[in-house]
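Thread: Newbie trying to understand structure tokens

Hi all, I'm a second-year student working on a class project, and my supervisor (Dr. K.) asked me to get a predicted structure for one chain before our next meeting. I've only ever worked with sequences, so writing a 3D structure as a token string is new to me. If someone could post the tokens and maybe explain what I'm looking at, I'd be very grateful. Here's the chain:
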Amino acid sequence: MCCKFPLWYKTFFDFEDHFSIFNLTEHSLLLVTLDFSQNMGQLPGVSSGKVIILVICFVKISYGNFCTDDVDECRLQPNACQNGGTCLNTCNGYKCICVNGWSGPDCSENIDDCAAEPCTAGSTCIDRVASFVCSCPPGKTGLLCHVDDACISNPCKMGAQCETNPIDGKFICTCPSGYKGRTCVEDIDECVIGTNPCENGGLCINTEGSFTCTCALGFGGTNCEGNIGDCLNHRCQNGATCIDGVNTYICQCPAEWTGPFCTDDVDECRLQPNACQNGGTCHNVHNGYNCVCVNGWSGPDCSENIDDCAAEPCTAGSTCIDRVASFVCSCPPGKTGLLCHVDDACISNPCKMGAQCETNPINGKFICTCPSGYKGKTCAEIDKCVIGPNPCENGGSPVSALQVTPVHTVRHQ
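---
Reply by user tm_fold:
Sure, no problem. This is what the structure looks like when written as tokens:
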């Protein structure tokens, strides 16, 4: 139990028969009644027969019905300790454990590390948190400015950086590229140490503190690392693409051109024997070729069949069938002819004896092709020279009247 009874409570406790305490507001307000009706001559300044009422307010520093539980200030005040300090709760309070460099009840005070005057006389101490820095006067160096500055005489050459060893006081030179030695006065021959710094076959030439490269043709740069662009002034023509090489370039020509600079026309007719289809004739021209198509074909390569039915040459009611450079009319019943424009004279079957009937496409009349042994316009007449016994006597050969050739007799006088 951390809390103690206050002094006034002990005093009143001695006179417990003469007072009472009333808790009006828990832990914050007390109403105390003192009855001095008798025997109160012991209390200085108080007469017997009087009643005194005291109202006492107090700050709540503890918890519990009887003020026996300690308040954890570290939990109620998360930032009670500053600058990384650790808060430790104690009986009726707290304390801070500060990190290095800080002090005070709440670790808010920076400890003065320069108080002990650690820097050498003549230097300036600069306080920091848990440390200090000595600002040295000319000629002094080191953590405490206790070492003579060996760099004040500029022993390092060629722009080298000079530092003084804080232990032995000697200078240390950090040499720039191309130099070596204690004071950086020795030239480094970059051409003989390690690999050749000049790339792509370049020639290395040592110089004071450095080197130069004589590059092979086609290369440039400090170390000959870059390929010189040869396409800057190229001679490629006709839309060709220049492709850079090493000290040269090539021209990538479009399909229609050839040659070193794409100035020669490509003979597509020779390179593409089938450039023109369906019997078309290929003619090479500048930057291309032309096809001369045979009748019935068209298009750039003669692959398109000309539609001969496009003009609707067949008579209405018939069907036009397209072919190459021609067409055929498919006629409905009762019509015939190339364009189905003639009435079919064979529809009435004028030819007899199984003769084949055709309609003359010009005049529309029927034509009968008679079988053997028959003749006439409709093949209804019998050809006696073919059917039956030979009508010609004494070995004569029968000749159809249709085959007789007139004989002309020449008389001699």
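A couple of things are worth pointing out once you decode it. The radius of gyration is 67 Å. DSSP finds three helices and 37 strands in the chain. Feel free to ask follow-ups in this thread.
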